[in-house]
Design goal:
128 residues; alpha/beta; 2,3-Dihydroxybiphenyl 1,2-Dioxygenase, domain 1; four-stranded mixed beta sheet; 8 strands; 41% strand
Length: 128
């Protein structure tokens, strides 16, 4: 019997994966669970925020889609956690820019920010 749990894990291609990892660790409390460094200087990391996994790597010069050639509206990430206020504030202090502050609307407590790498994150939780 397989122990694999089906999941969707975003892979973020950013300008500097090491710098991004530092930001996500500081801002979201992410833990590094996998690291692969290539002889050419490439870096691939898997990070986890309380079991929510995502991958980051440095942008390549190949045909890979990157943040700089994606329309910003094409991808938004939602980080759902118990205390969005604390994480939102930590992310701002770590260098993210607020798009709209934490508030309550449509059955959610959430806010939106842009990280230093151009990605939009909504940070929140559903209201009970």
């Amino acid at each position: 019997m397989s122990s694999i749990i089906t999941s969707i894990q975003p892979w973020l291609s950013v300008e500097n994966a090491a710098e991004a990892a530092t930001f996500y660790k500081e801002a979201f409390g992410a833990k590094e669970t996998y690291r692969m460094e290539t002889p050419e200087g490439g870096l691939v990391l898997k990070l986890s925020v309380d079991g929510a996994d995502f991958w980051i790597s440095s942008q390549s010069t190949g045909t890979e889609t990157t943040i700089s050639n994606l329309r910003q509206e094409a991808v938004k990430l939602i980080l759902v956690l118990e205390d969005p206020d604390i994480v939102f504030e930590r992310a701002i202090k770590a260098g993210a820019k607020e798009i709209f502050p934490i508030g309550e609307d449509y059955g959610w407590r959430l806010g939106r920010l842009t990280d230093p790498f151009g990605l939009d994150w909504e940070i929140g939780k559903p209201l009970e």
